Amino acid sequence: MKKLSILLVAGITAFSTFNFSNGVYASATNSTDNPANIIEGNSIASDAAQVQDTMVLGKLYFVNLKEGEQPIMTALSLFGNRCGSESFNHKPYATEGIRSVFELDEWIEFHPKANASAIKVMVFTHKADQSFYTKNSLNDKTPGYIQECDLNKDPEQEEADSWGSFYLHPDEVSPGYYDFVFIYKNKVVATMLTHFFKQEEIYEKSDSELEELMKQSLN
After folding, report:
1. SS3 assignment, position 65
2. I want to staple 109 with a disulfide (CB 3.0 to 4.6 A). Which of 79, 91, 124, 148 is the partner?
3. Which residues fall within 8 angstroms of residue 94, CB to CB, at 6 or more apart?
4. Are 103 and 153 a contacting pair, CB within 8 Å?
């Protein structure tokens, strides 16, 4: 009887752990050659804590998917038109180290790799609790909302062509940290932390200096 009780407790604990892991964020730390690696493994709980405690600039945080389900967006590249050299502005597709420091009034082009041809990106002032984006219906009345942009891939366009672009107007928003929230069919699929500076604040910085800015984390 004692042995049976131990087994029952272990089973209940395992079931609780499984349910806790559903619906949280998992950070993308593996190669995009195998997107399934992003959502598998035993570190989901610690990844969720990392998103809450420390967020890294330019890193895609994917909303955890059901086991075996492929993420809609697997990688991203962002181009700017004011800061850095051409190589800094044309980084390859990635899940982290994505260009994430910009000046206000700088045009940003979106180049996602995705298992879809239409995604929406919404911009919000940064929220420490990223689960806010999955617990609430997001629209232009949501607290912290800044703007949004529909990202669409034309079937006839080249691989390197932009899916869409926008800028944050310096007369409407202030320098600071912002979340890019990626949405597919009204469901949040990923978020990414960015840092916007005032006009001409980082314009003359070298690529290495811009890279150092991108290595900062937000605690």
Report:
1. coil
2. 79
3. 32, 75, 76, 77
4. no
Question: What type of residue sits at position 3?
Answer: K
Contacts of 201 (CB under 8 A, 6+ apart): 103, 175
Q: What is the pTM of this model?
A: 0.77
Instruction: For residue 194, give the 3-state DSSP assignment.
Output: strand
Each residue of 87-142: pLDDT tens digit?
Answer: 999 999 999 999 999 999 999 999 999 989 999 999 999 999 999 999 999 999 99
Judge whether 72 and 124 are in contact, CB under 8 Å. Answer: no
- Name which of 121, 108, 119, 137 is nearest 181 in CA terms: 121
User: Hunting for tokens 């009887």 — which residue is that?
Assistant: 1
Q: What are the φ/ψ torsions at residue 38 (nearest 5 degrees)?
A: -65, -30
Q: Which H or E run contains 184?
A: strand 176-184
Q: Which amino acid is at 109?
A: E
Rounded Cα distance between 112 and 79, Å, is: 11
Residue 213: Cβ-neighbour burial (10 angstroms; 0-12, 13-18, 19+): middle
Give the Cα separation of 212 and 98 in Å (integer): 13
